[in-house]
Amino acid sequence: MGLHNRPYWRDRDPESGSDTWQGGPLRLYLPKPGPVVLVLMGVCFAVFLVNTFMEPQTRIKVFLTLGLVFPDAAEVWRFLTFQFLHGHARHIMWNLVGLYFFGPPLEKQWGRRRFLAFYLVCGAFAGACYLLMCIIWPQFEDVPLVGASGGVLACLMACAILFPSMRVIVIPIRWVAFFYAVLYLLSIAHDRNLADGAHLGGMLAAALWIWLFPKVARAGAQAHGRLQKGAWDKKMKAQARERAEVDRILQKIHDEGINSLTRREKKLLQDATRQQQKEEREIYRA
Length: 286
Known about the structure:
Elements: H1 35-52, H2 56-66, H3 78-81, H4 89-110, H5 112-136, H6 149-162, E1 167-168, E2 171-172, H7 173-191, H8 194-256, H9 263-285
Antiparallel strand pairs: 1-2
Helix pairs in contact: 1-4, 4-5, 4-6, 5-6, 5-8, 6-7, 6-8, 7-8, 8-9
């Protein structure tokens, strides 16, 4: 098969994603980022530029203040702020490249709000995995975690699950995701690289988001439905008992007269009358 026949070398319709190559120069398809992806990339790059012009000591202070550090894990805002800090140029470059390629398909699939929630939650989960690694290896607990890698690798894993035919250059995306997962496991076990614990945590969070959370949500909805049905059945049974009691009182009035009613029976009949009048007014207004 020639290069011109390969789908990743064809021009694509940015809306439908269909191949449109009809000959002529070969061009590699580049995605069109959505608003959320552009904002995330812009904020990361702007923060990096600001840090670039800081004195080294000031930059370290920023990382210790806004990065995710085990002793200060109770400061929950760090689970958000650490995702927009980067230590060096290669760090932010690869994260922006990954977000550029793997973010747009998810934003288009899920919409802006759901994609943003997915990205930030998976990034925070990656940070939690890093803190767990710090418990296992406490000698690293004072080293701050920074970077968007957790959220970016969550996007990679989500694309591997949702779009298995997607390729990274010529490599199927599922192979890429498997390669990185194995690489990070080996890095954690052999090199004690806790940052790779965060990377692996982001990938795990994406898998849980796509495979587990929908099942939990469905189970919760079914349980809620059963509770509602049980409450409705209970209400219907109570109303049936009340109607039966009212019928008995009316029959007693017919047989023995209204003076034969007890105080409780009179009150129950009055309450039933008021309830019927209320329902009739509501029907009339409707």
